[in-house]
Target: Ribosomal RNA small subunit methyltransferase I
Amino acid sequence: MTTVASNQGILYVVATPIGNLGDMVPRAVETLQTVAVIAAEDTRHSSRLLAHFDIKTPCIAYHDHSDETRVEQLIARIQAGDSVALISDAGTPLVSDPGYRLVRSARQAGVKVVPIPGACAMIAALSAAGLPSDRFAFEGFLPAKQVARCTQLQSLAADPRTLIFYEAPHRILETLQDMAQVFGAEREVVMARELTKTFETIKGSNVSELAAWVESDSNQQRGEIVLLVHGAPKPENEAMTPEHMHIMKVLLDELPVKQAAAIGAKLTGLKKNFLYDWALQQAE
Ligand code: SAM
Model:
């Protein structure tokens, strides 16, 4: 394990608002005001945010495509005692944004990395979508080309977790139509658009209805968008719990298979045909 020298600086990973400046947390302002330098995805873009909060700290550009010397220079600077703050254009760095190379190299070099949490579009969307949030998978941006996009969707079609995607406004309609094709028209999808901003819209529906709604209103094809997809329903053979089996065995001791399946369906919520087939398999 690498140990952190106490006279070193710190790499702070600082979240910034995703639209509403009121979401800038006080600790983020304080950190950006006090570090030696801010490594920003786009210094011109960030200059507006920094001016708004009267942050005068010098800024340098950092991107994951920056050459290796930029990463090395930043790490050397932290090791020499300066603290550095990493920010992206909006939201949490590293979440579909630059920062991975810097944070990984910093940790490998034994530099202390401290997160300053704040806005993140996918978490904001998940918190308001009303979809299961106990297990979810963040999938970032889907491929831009349709064949690759459908292949990716296909690989996720049976995933039981809530799926979260970022999508560009000019592709939203095609993506919803592809989702209807691959996941089936009935799959529930929530579109969270322009979160924290004036035209914030959160709309949930089955995916074919949502696609038709987006097609009929071009305003829905603007701005920044998160798509959340209900996980795949469990295959019914996995839905048979020990309790369901017990209910069915008691019913089958007393009743013909057809009647047991019909009553079992009412008691368990499972489909009558499925329980009928299950009962026949037990008799084999
Ligand atoms: N790092 C950011 C975060 O923490 O959410 C994400 C950066 S990624 C380059 C930009 C994408 O995030 C947008 O295309 C959109 O899909 C999503 N996004 C960002 N801000 C948003 C907002 N206010 N409402 C909805 N989606 C947003």
